[in-house]
């Protein structure tokens, strides 16, 4: 049996309207990306990219999208992403753009990159804080976003205790 290699593109939905992020659906993102590929690369590019193209993950609150495609056609997909200008959801069109953050071979590498990216974003927010209350809130977010070995081991011990 032949194993088909995939590439995962981690993208960010950039829009001026904050309502856009909460209203998007994975189906709408997939249709917009396919439409952009068809406009830029024609039928050939659309056929190459749509073989295993899927939206694997969408977080509407953070605007993070994970797209999967075949390894040999990820360049076609990534070159068409800047041409996504709007997403249509619930019969409304929201102007936005897709910004590629990372291209990885597995979902796990994309997750690791996303954790580091979010930490850097929180640190930038920490530097721009106006008062002490905001700083404490962001510091709490930074600490809760990282798991230490001790915390993960104690969580495993609690899970084991309930099964015996």
Summarize the structure.
The protein has 164 residues and is α+β, with helices and mostly antiparallel strands. It has helices at 18-23, 26-49, 74-80, 107-127, 132-144, 149-163; strands at residues 6-14, 54-59, 64-70, 86-89, 92-95, 97-104. Component of ribonuclease P, a protein complex that generates mature tRNA molecules by cleaving their 5'-ends. Also a component of the MRP ribonuclease complex, which cleaves pre-rRNA sequences.
SSE blueprint and pairings:
Elements (H helix, E strand, L loop, with lengths): L5 E9 L3 H6 L2 H24 L4 E6 L4 E7 L3 H7 L5 E4 L2 E4 L1 E8 L2 H21 L4 H13 L4 H15 L1
Antiparallel strand pairs: 1-3, 1-6, 2-3, 4-5
Helix pairs in contact: 2-3, 4-5
Structural write-up:
This is Ribonuclease P/MRP protein subunit POP5. Belongs to the eukaryotic/archaeal RNase P protein component 2 family. The protein has 164 residues and is an alpha+beta fold. It folds into two domains: 100 residues, Ribonuclease P, Pop5 subunit (Alpha-Beta Plaits), CATH 3.30.70.3250; 45 residues. The chain has six helices and six strands, in the order βααββαβββααα. It has a four-stranded antiparallel β-sheet, sandwiched between helices. It has a two-stranded antiparallel ribbon with strand order 4-5. A hairpin with a 4-residue loop joins β2 and β3. α2 crosses α3 and α4 packs antiparallel against α5. The longest helix has 24 residues. The radius of gyration is 19 Å and the shape is globular. The N and C termini lie far apart (41 Å). The C terminus is likely disordered.
């Amino acid at each position: 049996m032949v194993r088909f290699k995939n590439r995962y593109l981690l993208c960010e939905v950039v829009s001026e309207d904050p309502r856009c992020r909460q209203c998007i659906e994975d189906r709408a993102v997939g249709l917009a990306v396919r439409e952009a590929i068809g406009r830029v690369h024609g039928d050939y590019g659309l056929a190459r990219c749509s073989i295993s193209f899927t939206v694997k993950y969408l977080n509407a609150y953070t605007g993070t999208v994970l797209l999967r495609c075949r390894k040999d056609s990820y360049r076609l997909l990534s070159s068409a992403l800047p041409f996504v200008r709007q997403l249509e959801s619930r019969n409304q069109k929201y102007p936005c753009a897709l910004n590629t953050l990372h291209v990885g071979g597995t979902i796990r590498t994309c997750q690791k990159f996303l954790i580091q990216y979010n930490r850097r974003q929180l640190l930038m927010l920490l530097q721009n804080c106006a008062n002490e209350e905001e700083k404490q809130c962001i510091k709490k977010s930074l600490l809760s976003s990282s798991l230490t070995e001790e915390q993960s081991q104690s969580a495993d011990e609690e899970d084991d205790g309930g099964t015996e």
